[in-house]
Amino acid sequence: MDATMTSSAKAKFAKTDKNKKKMSGTVRGYLILVGLVIISWLIFKLITPGNFGTPANMLQYFQASLIAATGAIGFYFVMVMGMFDFSIGANIMLSAIVGCVLATKYGLGYPGLVIGCIVTGAIVGLLNGTFYVKLRIPSMIVTTGLALIYESIANYMAGGIEQTLPADMRMFGTMPGDIILAVVAFLIAYLILNYTKIGTYTYAIGSDEFVAKNMGIKVNKYKVLAFIISGAFFGIMAILTISYGSSMVAVTGMSSMSRNFVPTMGCFFGVAFKKYGMPLPAIIIGEFVINIIFFGFIALGAPTAIQDVITGLALLIIITLTTKAHKGEIVK
């Protein structure tokens, strides 16, 4: 009897200790992220105190970061499985144009904008996932080729004309519309990741695809689902993008890839901080850090090329430091 009680007590204490370690890890992750925000703000505030970092500025930076964060949390489903997507920009561009055309040309208003963007994004994701699992070639190659097709479709639909959203249909480009839509998107992603079979299998496949197959998980099915979810979230990002910027221009020749960078870098934060059990908050705060750096260089008046180089280097350093393996760990 005493032995049984001792064993039960040990199990209870072990579980409590594990929860404490997990909690402390999460706290550590938040402290690192908040520290990055403060350091990024402080550096540029000291250099350009007059035109950077006021409360109004910080709110503006945060609003801008919400746009990319919305797409990045969707992309996390794909990236955590070890896949990639080079058609992000083309997806956002095509989804925004379809939504704008349905809302204005066909007079469907907000339903046309919202449904058009999200459904188009999801269809693009379905095509990406289907071609990837059927052709059995790297996702980067598949999505790069498909991006050219999406750009051409967007250009055809736009008719070579810049698509502009009327002023009375830009609710999601200002507060509180943009924040409400972003929060809804974040909540949906959180629920899917933590309370559904899709989320469980997403992590299982990302951890070890071979083991996942042996467990009976239909890996290809969930890879396609990951691309569909990612595409739908890029559709939401398209709503925020065209509402915030008021218009969208269809480009060709892979020019849309310039839109890939920011959501991808934000997603890197999620992957890096997954070990702390907080990937989605890391993406949101990470995108905020990226925008602080971006607007900091604008305040400095630095040339765009220099901004890109230094921002890229800074983010590489941040990701390297946050993903640095401890002694004895295996880096996958």
In words, what does this structure look like?
- It is a single chain.
- With 332 residues, this protein is an all-alpha fold.
- It has a single domain (33-321), classed as ABC transporter involved in vitamin B12 uptake, BtuC, CATH 1.10.3470.
- Helix content is 76%, strand content 1%.
- The chain is built from 12 helices and 2 strands.
- It has helices at residues 2-47, 55-79, 88-104, 109-135, 139-158, 177-195, 197-207, 209-214, 219-245, 261-272, 279-300, 304-322; strands at residues 163-164, 247-248.
- The chain has a two-stranded antiparallel sheet with strand order 1-2.
- Helix 3 packs antiparallel against helix 4 (109-135), helix 4 (109-135) runs antiparallel to helix 5 and helix 6 crosses helix 7 (197-207).
- The protein is globular, with a radius of gyration of 21 Å.
- The model is unreliable at 1-5, 7-14 and 325-332 (pLDDT under 50).
Please outline what is shown here.
This protein has about 325 residues and is mostly helical.
CATH class: Mainly Alpha
Number of strands: 2
Provide the helix percentage.
over 70%
H-E order? HHHHHEHHHHEHHH
Order of strands across the main sheet: 1-2
Q: What is the CATH topology?
A: ABC transporter involved in vitamin B12 uptake, BtuC
